[in-house]
Amino acid sequence: MPRSRQPEARRNLRRMWQRLARRAGLTLCLWFGALAGAANAQDDTPLITGASYDGPTDRYAHGVLGDAIEHTTLVLSLDGGIERRFTLPEDMVFEDTAPRLADVTGDGRAEVIVVETSLTQGARLTVYTAEGRLASTPYIGQPNRWLAPLGAADIDGDGAVEIAYVDRPHLIKTLRLVRLDGRDLIETASLKGVTNHRIGWDYIVGGIRTCTGRPEIILSTGDFLVNLSVFWAADDRLDTRAEGRFTGRESVERLLACE
């Protein structure tokens, strides 16, 4: 190339790189803007500060919690004084003692864990957000079959939260751990021969404690003779430790209080 054309070529090359740089900068700005918009959208989502049941009904005559009254409506209290109500269809009830607040998704915000029951298919565990139902386990499969929640924590130490409940605490007496997977709650572990409820109790015994730096599930043997601590063992399974005789609800509450 003649020397007289080299400065023009260099100028053209410089202008090309400047255009590419501007385009890259615009793309980066748009990308960061999208991230900021997503973060702002999340920040705008109301925080759940409380939950309760309303709409008493006798349309499901199971009576596992001591009477024939269940509930049709979940009431969420949100920050800013907002209230949201979610009412079930006529073939379902909330068959539960109380909703439970827990950060199931790991985003630092509370979700709500409930027991929903179909009049024809029995109970299932469900998680709600401020926007409504997020995920559920399958129904047990027949009426008058129930489950009793225990709580939520990272039981196996992998950074994800598991929800613990006893499947049919009066029949098959099986502890199950489930984890959020999209719109489903997928089982990750189970343990037979344990329970946390007797027919007619209007309460559920047990829960999850952290007394020694790791989460432990507190419940009882299936015959309600011995209290148990259930924890994740080093060989990647659920293990148990006897925690004294079951002498009533108070004996379990002392264990939950690390006494």
Low-confidence stretches: 1-41
Which overall shape is indicated by the principal axes computed on the Cα atoms?
A: globular
Helix content: 10-25%
Helix-strand pattern, N to C?
HEEEEEEEEEEEEEEEEEH
Q: End-to-end span in angstroms? A: 88 Å
Number of helices: 2
Oligomer: single chain
Largest sheet: 5 strands, antiparallel
Q: In percent terms, what proportion of residues is strand?
A: 35-45%
**Rg measurement, Å:** 26 Å
Mean pLDDT: 88
Q: Output the structural class.
A: alpha+beta
Instruction: Tell me the number of strands.
Output: 17
Give keywords.
5-stranded antiparallel sheet, alpha+beta, disordered N terminus
Structural write-up:
The chain is of the alpha+beta class and 259 residues long. Helix content is 18%, strand content 42%. It is built from two helices and 17 strands. Strands 4, 5, 6, 7 and 8 form a five-stranded antiparallel β-sheet that branches. Strands 13, 14, 15, 16 and 17 form a five-stranded antiparallel β-sheet that branches. Strands 9-10-11-12 form a four-stranded antiparallel β-sheet, with no helix packed on it. The relative contact order is 0.09.
